[in-house]
Amino acid sequence: MCRAESYGTTEDDSAQECKSGEDSSENNSESSSESESDNETDIRKSEANSQFRCEHVKTEHIQKEQVTPRKLSGGQFRLKLEAEGTYQCTVTGLIFDVTKAAVIKYSVLSWSKYADYVKKPWIVGGPIFDVSCDSASVLTSIQFPHSLSLNDHESDMTFKVLHIRSTGPAIEPSVDHSMTHVKWHVSSLSPVGPVIQTQEPVHYNGAVILYKVVNNHPSLSFRVYVATNNDSFIKDISNAVKHSDKKFIKIDKPPVCKKLQDGKRYRLISESEAEITPEEMEFVDGSLLKLKSYFEVYLEQPMEFTLSLIELESEEIVWKAKLRECDWILHDQNKNERKRNTISNRRRKSSNSLSDEEFYNKRPKKGRDISDGTKAKTTLTDQQLMTLAKKMGKDWKEIGIECLKLEMKDIQQIQAKEEEVNVHKFLMLEKWRKGEKSNGTAQNLYDSLKDHVSYEIIQILEGFL
User: Residue ranges under compositional bias (Basic and acidic residues) (predicted)?
Assistant: First the structure.
């Protein structure tokens, strides 16, 4: 049982009054009465806050089994749970409550895609996920990790979730929250993420992420991102770097920093002389923004140096890291080693190329020669579409709309037919093939689905190429 701490009791006040003498007893009596009233109020508040925190401590310590998912293509994860229980994903922090054995698939999404649905006074509270389960009724609740650094004002916060239903977005109530998670009873499975509403300043668990520009110039150039510790935000940063015109490597430094406050200004400084642009930056949770802000750090000559992130008002250092030459030299050595191995492999292949070519020419040709891509250019057959349809999960309608560019009316027309669900999936793929005409090929379908479907479907499509 948790006990509330109280500060200043009425007995202490009485003792102080006795020491001050009896001449001002009436004034002291009035003062004591007021002080007693104030203290009782403070005690009640302290007890309420303590009780509030204790409830969340209980929630956090519910026994849960740690499970590591299998990673599928397109950043999707797959968990096969063998029995009823509470399970926590070791990669994403998601917590699932299931009533019996289940297979759950999920992936981290970008909040920027749903920015239009998060309107004031609501703000993003943590990463957004797309979750599916082979039996939706088995998955009773999900606990989403949040990125907030909670304090005594957490009781003033309203925690809910944004649920992107097939009928449209909806703000739905949560059933509980802890220092790390927001719990939601599953109503249906589609993109869901935590949102909050509060009148108090918002404090976040922060992360500082570093990338170094890779080029042949001896100078050093870095991007330093200051973010909430939110997988959706961090994934957006990774994608921005990946699609940049420049090449980058990630510098492995402890990313977690002390709490960041929305609206506060922060400055990045270097102990060695470096050009840092901008000099300072106002922190905002950029989860909903497509373009993420960052500091650019430039050093003319390569050297060891230390970076510190400082909150300007208090001058507190909230993050600090020392960067050494070995942090990026090792990467270059590994890259050169891979290059040498590649060259060595090519030489070995070259020495055997004649016999391999002779063997290939003597081989009997079975079926169509796909070396010129003829097979990849052939329109998919009904049999191939049915094979794919049988492997699609409950998110087939979302895939049809998002990846195959069908409209909701197309899906509704398909569902109106009294057929088994695999036939509905087949009819969706057939609708796509008709629309693509001569481009209804395995290659075209592969390009459309590769980042959104399971590894098993990707393997089948690759077999069709």
Answer: 41-51
